[in-house]
Amino acid sequence: MKKDAVFVFSEEQLGYSFSDTHPFNQKRIVLTLDLLKKSNAITDKDIVKPRTATDEELLLVHEPKFIDIVKKAGKGLISENIGSVYGIGTDDTPIFPNMHEASAMLVGGTLTAVDEVMEGRSKYALNLGGGLHHGFQGKASGFCVYNDSSVAIKYIQKKYGARVLYVDTDAHHGDGVQWTFYDDPNVCTLSIHETGRYLFPGTGAITERGNGEGYGTSFNFPIDAFTEDESFLHIYKTAIEEVAAFFKPDVILTQNGADAHYFDPLTHLYGTMKIYEQIPRIAREIAERYCEGRWIAVGGGGYDIWRVVPRAWSHIWLAMKQFPIPSGRLPDEWLTAWHSTSPVPFIETWEDPNPLYEPIPRKAEITEKNAKMLERALHIVRNQH
Ligand SMILES: [Zn+2]
Question: On the CB side of 260, how many CA atoms lie within 13 Å of its CA?
Fold first, then answer.
């Protein structure tokens, strides 16, 4: 019988670890899974173990020389000088033991999710270990070595011949995926992110629309620092609806970075848990409308791993299983299990406190600016109608 959803996970995903002090910390997957278990929202039957990606699969996107360097780096066989040409051994993306194996495992998890959905065993699939959207063909960047979404999209094209809509709601621009498919008219990338004026990686302007035959299949929605829930959700909902109606995908792949939250230490957006309740529910609706439900979701950024990510990522699974949006107190068992480990006091409810922060004086101005950006970013789509 076809399942509603599968959750791709094994402890091996935790091997992707730069250091104990690095902001990218896969412990957030453990915290999320435990929250779902203690909320009685998931059982062991829902969990599928990831496989590792083969070299042949990585080569669908990545350059042979780069893969070779990553392999050697993880065995301590190259100097940081050589590594830095390939984006590894930097402050952002340091070398760590077995980095090739760990990175290939995250890619394999997303491929596992793809096969579950495309072979019809499950309607939806979630791999929180994936979402490494800054990885380039020949270079690591921004905490990302191999780009699981890029490899997964090439894999979907080759094995299943399907048109893919990639939707990226991480606070950072989904540059690695965008540039990999910039010339490809059969892959559409949509990224909503904090403007690159002050935030890594600096790209993602609305003028980045694709190239050659791929012109018009790359969409960017750069929003202002301090953007709040209403404006974020208005742009996300309008963008995904209009772009999906225009592109008519066969399958949707969503990247679910949870770093657009007010608490996130690396970005300047002012989202609350309200955006994370809605993002996956709207994605699911779109997948139902255009793709007979086919929807694969991956993780991504998210650097407040205690207060934000477990709740935010739980909402993806809850949307897949069509549970109602939960409210009220988090399970006591979960709070008790983790509260002494957390360096910050927990938010003890599914919702954020209201208000979560002091009012922003420039709210109207920011909302207005974002709305104008949306008009300009969608003009290609709107001109077709
Ligand atoms: Zn991010």
Answer: 34
- Alpha carbon of 221 to ligand 1 centroid (Å): 15
104 torsion bin: left (phi>0), alpha (psi -120 to 50), beta (else):
alpha
pTM: 0.98
Around ion ligand 1, which residues have CB less than 5 A away? 170-172, 257, 259, 301
Q: Give the tokens for residue 75.
A: 């065995």
DSSP 308: T
Q: In this predicted model, what pLDDT tens digit does every residue of 19-48 receive, in sequence order?
A: 999 999 999 999 999 999 999 999 999 999
- Distance, in Å, from the CA atom of 272 to the CA atom of 354, rounded to the nearest integer, reads 9
**What whole-number distance in Å separates Cα of residue 307 and Cα of residue 305?**
6
**pLDDT at position 1:** 84
Please give the distance, rounded to the nearest whole angstrom, from the Cα atom of residue 384 to the centre of ligand 1. 32
How far away, in angstroms, is 25 Cα from ligand 1 center? 13
For the stretch 191-220, pLDDT in tens is 999 999 999 999 999 999 999 999 999 999
The mean predicted confidence, pLDDT, of the chain is 97
What is the full DSSP assignment across 104-119? Answer: HHHHHHHHHHHHHHHT
How far apart are the CA of 67 and the centre of ligand 1, in A? 23
- In this prediction, residue 367 carries a pLDDT of 98
How far is the centre of ligand 1, averaged over its atoms, from the C-alpha of 298 (Å)? 13
